[in-house]
Amino acid sequence: MPVQSANRRASLSKRRAAVSEMFDHVAPRYDLVNDLLSLGLDRLWRTQTVNAVEPKPGQLILDLAAGTGTSSHPFTASGATVIPTDLSEGMLAVGKVRQPGLSFVNADALALPFADKTFDAVTISFGLRNVENVHAALVEMYRVTKPGGRIVICEFSTPTWKPFRHLYRRYLVRAFPVVVPFTSTNPVAYDYLVESILAWPDQRSLAAELTRAGWQRAGWKNLSGGVVALHRAHR
Ligand SMILES: C[S@@+](CC[C@H](N)C(=O)[O-])C[C@H]1O[C@@H](n2cnc3c(N)ncnc32)[C@H](O)[C@@H]1O
Q1: Is 114 in the pocket of ligand 1 (CB under 6 A)?
Q2: For the chain, which has fewer Cβ within 10 Å, the N-terminal or C-terminal residue?
Q3: Cα of 23 to ligand 1 centre, how many Å?
Q4: pLDDT tens sequence for the chain (235 residues)
Q5: Is 125 in the pocket of ligand 1 (CB under 6 A)?
Q6: pTM score > 0.85 for this model?
Q7: Residue 203: CB within 6 Å of ligand 1?
């Protein structure tokens, strides 16, 4: 094995372990902190995500980076079967208690334990930002999607109105450190959250990334002025 590739693998597995450990720590309070920091808007974003996926009875949906299953649960009302999949054992353990009706799978987005062309739709909410290699994850999601199937990504994005964008960034940088110490078991994780949101590509760049990974007809819808964007594309 070439030295460089061995080093790269070691660094990837270290990073994967770090991400997983970080979410293991925040798992018990994750949903509460989400509700507080998003001022309850996360519920609206989740409904919009389900609408964009358009699940039908009998369909099979992969919810990747599903965490505690909060993003998966809204799919159950549609009659589709949703498979919540996540890297963090801690998040899954909390999810299994809170959502006992769901069949959680422990897996890495970069090496999914599913056959080619398995799912009618794949979706990922607030997870793609945390994955080490976004391009590889989008290619892997493409692999497990049936031809004609769709991908929906719900992720923080760039507010479109400039004055609001500045306010929002100030909220992220100033409000998070105030709220988090009262709620989270690991404030470092939320520092990481702010940094990763600020560094994340804007709507157009993520759509281009989807196309680069083989997805077709990539487009997006802004939610809450672009605080969040729903990207959708087809295989
Ligand atoms: C912010 S949480 C989102 C959870 C859930 N989708 C939601 O909307 O509440 C991000 C999740 O991504 C998971 N994650 C990070 N890297 C991952 C990877 N490579 N494969 C699978 N899951 C991953 C974390 O374990 C964590 O549960």
Answers
A1: no
A2: N
A3: 8
A4: 445 467 656 665 666 777 788 888 888 887 887 787 788 899 999 999 999 999 999 999 999 999 999 999 999 999 999 999 999 999 999 999 999 999 999 999 999 999 999 999 999 999 999 998 999 999 999 999 999 999 999 999 999 999 999 999 988 888 777 776 666 556 677 777 888 899 999 999 999 999 999 999 999 999 999 999 999 999 9
A5: yes
A6: yes
A7: no
